[in-house]
Design brief:
single chain, alpha+beta, Umud Fragment, subunit A, 4-stranded antiparallel β-sheet, 16 strands
């Protein structure tokens, strides 16, 4: 749980700094608006209460059904009006002043708000934490993208697959992965209800270890980010057979919860041999990593890549392409999970 503690502590510090700065500038704004002497703790309470109340419209109004550009604009305008109106109303009540004087005092808090945005863009996202979603289900059932959910025909547990467009669907069963067995299965006519993707947090302060789930730039196109499980480290030789990962000739035991996972060295319909198979072991050089998707029968991972980063073999993820380690799935609440 150390990464959870680190994450919570970091966010608490950031929030406390943001609140303190906003309270300080609200006091300055109160002087400009001639409200009188506003104590620091009263300003803090005004900032916190206004932040909580102004959050309500952003959560409720997106649920309002809209149609067409005109109605969408109306909802967005209404959202902004309610957000600012509630903010100024709460500040007015806490500071015991008029509505427009509260609005005038509030404008001073735009200065720390801008600095907070700059802090996130310049420091937090590049060097500390970043939130991601994935458009695919190559890491299912560990991390889900947009997905269909059905029942595994073997054990009755949930099974997942990437949604297919209506015009691309065929009468053949859909390839899915069982959440309990961690193996692929075929489900005939699964429901076409589409579920949202997991939102997960990537920590950039910790070093990756074997079996971590990581985010990295795709070697063939560094503008695209992939999410996969790290299995091969620099200097190692990776081979996959008997459903397991072998490193330098030694079978690797996945951590608890992954003991049933099956990694494939052959994929039906794939015309070429796979990197990491017995006939094509993946030899990693300094600063190179080998990654796999948990949905092994339907994952575009190191085994299948045909083009690598400059100066590296096709299957290798260079160290400079690593973004960070996935530590938490934080949304939806039913999917909350600590991965490291």
């Amino acid at each position: 749980m150390s990464t959870t503690i680190l994450t919570v502590e970091s966010f608490v510090v950031i929030v406390l700094v943001e609140v303190a700065l906003a309270a300080y500038f609200l006091r300055l704004g109160s002087c400009w608006a001639k409200i009188g002497n506003v104590g620091f703790f009263r300003a803090v309470w005004a900032v916190v209460a206004a932040s909580i109340v102004s959050w309500i419209p952003t959560r409720l109004l997106p649920q309002v059904p809209v149609g067409g550009v005109g109605r969408t604009i109306v909802v967005l305008v209404l959202q902004l009006v309610l957000m600012f109106g509630l903010t100024w109303f709460v500040i007015a009540r806490v500071l015991k002043t008029g509505f427009w004087r509260a609005a005038w005092a509030w404008t001073a808090t735009l200065v720390p708000a801008a600095s907070n945005i700059l802090l996130v863009v310049v420091i937090v996202r590049p060097y500390m934490f970043e939130a991601f979603t994935t458009p695919t289900n190559s890491m299912a059932p560990t991390i889900l993208g947009r997905h269909w959910e059905a029942t595994c025909p073997r054990c009755g547990s949930p099974a997942y697959a990437t949604p297919e467009p209506n015009d691309a669907r065929s009468p053949r069963p859909v390839l899915m992965i069982c959440a309990k067995e961690l193996r692929s299965c075929e489900v005939a006519n699964p429901t076409s209800v589409e579920h949202r993707a997991d939102k997960f947090l990537v920590n950039k302060l910790i070093s990756p270890r074997r079996w971590d789930v990581i985010v990295f730039r795709y070697p063939a196109d560094p503008t695209i980010y992939y999410c996969k499980r790290l299995v091969g480290l620099p200097g190692e030789t990776v081979a996959i057979h008997d459903g397991a990962v072998w490193i330098d000739g030694k079978r690797q035991s996945p951590p608890n919860g992954l003991d049933k996972i099956e990694y494939l060295d052959q994929i039906a319909g794939w015309p070429q041999r796979l990197w990491g198979s017995r006939s094509m072991p993946a030899k990693l050089g300094p600063g190179e990593y080998f990654v796999l998707g948990d949905f092994s029968a339907n994952a575009m991972d190191s085994r299948l890549w045909q083009q690598g980063a400059p100066g590296h073999p096709p299957y290798a993820v260079p160290e400079s392409y690593l973004t960070g380690v996935v530590t938490h799935i934080y949304w939806p609440p039913s999917r909350w999970c600590v991965l490291r």
